[in-house]
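Write out a sequence, fold above all:
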Amino acid sequence: MPLGVHGDKGSWQVIKRIMEGKKVIIHGDGTSLWTITHNTDFAKAYCGLIGNIHAIGQAFHITSDESVTWNQIYKIIADTLGVPLKACHIPSDFLNAIGPYDFEGTLIGDKASTVVFDNSKIKRAVPGFTATVRADCGIRSTIEYILEHPGLQTEDEEFDKWCDKVIDGFENAAKQLKSTIR
């Protein structure tokens, strides 16, 4: 599942928090753009590179042409689960600073900034390649698959408690500061 903030055991605990009506952390203001590529689309391009003489010695990124915001990603997840999204936006630098999770590479260096790709190189090497699975459809099918396979639902109580502490602390700090400024 494409998530900006999750624990060491993967995305299930965030999905579970959404299902339980708990607040979930979305990094920054949630408006940076991200590109999601479904595995079936990736496979089409990858297979077109295997044995392709134009691919030898070359580096390619394989992505969709569609970009969505993190707010949209989390909303799609909540909509798929049939529950309202309760988002808590927290600055990425703050999340990285408080630990214990290392968000330096995965969040600060990757997901916190808008990412839009130029797919012309892969399309030249693999004529006819087009990503056809929309982000919302891919997320929906992934959620359905996870829900149908309990073995993928790895609990992460430590991350869940961390989220509660971070959200409470962040919201309380804002309230306290606001009351001292007025």
User: Anything to note?
Assistant: The radius of gyration is 19 Å. The chain has a mean pLDDT of 94. The domain at 12-181 is CATH 3.40.50.720 (Rossmann fold). The beta strands are 24-27, 33-35, 67-69, 87-90.
